[in-house]
Design goal:
6-stranded antiparallel sheet, 13 helices, alpha+beta, about 400 residues
């Protein structure tokens, strides 16, 4: 987790759902609701347009943090849309609002939504072990896996270790940027390591859980993950500019922003390397999505409103397990496909970040939809330890009260 992001997070909130027994007689009419019974909206004033303009001012080829920024602030309290920078540093073409970009781990929110839809339909039980749906995937035995529930995959408490990649450095990953990776091979490699911890004991935010969930989606639906996502979310919501590329596809389809990574030059200073073309098959259902800010805003508002996942199952996306984070030892913050943030003023928001080289993305907002935020920042160090300064400024401006 990025250092400055961790500073925004406070104690996890665990939500519960209780259901009483059914009764045959009619229940008494509820008492009239008074104004004091209704929680006021989190945000009641319009977004601070001046602060938002300042947050993205100066973005472009000469900015050390980002070459472009697209921002949409919405919700019942008002909206603001803005952009700055360039779509391509070579041509100088200006950034444009409907540009496509790589959304990274925002993909996980879509994947979780499909699984929760299947749960609402009774096609999967979140408390049942995934081993019952995918026999042989997680071998048992003295050094094998205990039962891992579908819910534990959703909230990253499965204990499955990550698969090995080409290396953590940009140079190592760039050298293998066009490799085509079989997700089943990734799972086999991860499983061969054995469990990292007992299921449900800790939370470790990893892509491997969502790779397994995509295989589960394919098993339950009898179709590909990509088709299930399209039929269940993209088409119903009219997300016409959102897609998951084919396994051998390296390019972003349609008009898009170029992504860049800053690298040190031998004689000092830095240069921008174009990282737009990149094969994302190793990320698949955990980070392969391509979208626009308009599509992601529509998805976010529909999701929070209960129009993507039925509200009973939607609680999973706002529920943080009561465990510690594997890396930091602090309280967990991840939910099923999202994350709980506490801003410096105590405001609680939910959302998802996504980072691919050249691209940083956020979706989320107040749960009552009084304020939402979607941005795409073409960060020149999207995988850096610290949160991108432009992105941080956007978050602070968007959620100011």
């Amino acid at each position: 987790m990025k250092v400055r992001t961790r500073a925004l997070i406070a104690t996890a909130l665990v939500l519960g759902i209780a259901a009483g027994p059914a009764v045959a007689h009619a229940a008494p009419a509820p008492a009239p609701m008074s104004a004091r019974d209704v929680d006021p909206p989190v945000y009641t004033t319009a977004p601070d347009a001046a602060a938002l303009r300042r947050a993205i001012a100066g973005v472009g080829p000469g900015n050390g943090d980002a070459t472009a920024a697209l921002v949409r602030v919405g919700g019942t309290s008002g909206r603001w849309v803005g952009s700055s920078g360039v779509a391509d540093v070579r041509t100088g073409r200006k950034a444009f609002d409907d540009a496509r970009f790589r959304a990274g781990s925002v993909t996980k929110t879509f994947t979780a939504a499909v699984v929760l839809q299947l749960a609402a339909e009774g096609r999967v039980d979140l408390d049942r072990p995934v081993q019952q749906y995918l026999p042989g995937l997680l071998p048992s035995g003295p050094k094998g896996f205990e039962p891992v529930s579908v819910r534990q995959l959703l909230n990253y408490t499965s204990g499955i270790q990550p698969a090995e990649g080409p290396g953590d450095s940009f140079e190592a990953q760039y050298a293998h940027r066009f490799d085509v990776v079989d997700p089943h091979a990734l799972i086999a490699e991860a499983v061969a390591k054995g469990p990292e911890f007992k299921p449900g004991e800790k939370q470790h935010y990893l892509n491997i859980d969502y790779t397994v969930l995509a295989v589960l989606i394919e098993k339950l639906t009898g179709t590909t993950y990509e088709q299930a996502l399209s039929e269940r979310i993209l088409k119903p919501l009219g997300l016409h500019h959102t897609s998951v590329p084919g396994r051998g596809e390296n390019r972003i389809p349609g008009p898009h922003h170029h992504g860049y990574q800053a690298v040190d030059k031998p004689g000092g200073g830095s240069a921008l390397v174009d990282v737009t073309d990149w094969n994302s098959s190793s990320n698949w259902a955990a980070g392969d999505l391509i979208s626009t800010t308009a599509d992601l805003e529509r998805f976010t508002q529909a999701l929070f409103a209960g129009r993507v996942v039925p509200k009973a199952q939607l609680e999973e996306m706002f529920t943080v397990p009561a465990v510690k984070d594997f890396d930091s030892g602090e309280d967990a913050v991840q939910t099923a496909g999202m994350k709980r943030f506490v801003l410096p003023d105590g405001t609680v928001v939910y959302g998802k970040t996504g980072s691919r080289y050249g691209y940083s993305t956020v979706i989320g907002g107040a749960r009552d939809l009084s304020r939402t935020l979607v941005y795409s920042v073409n960060s020149t160090d999207a995988k850096g330890q610290d949160m991108n300064k432009v992105a941080y400024g956007i978050v602070m401006a968007a959620f100011a009260r």
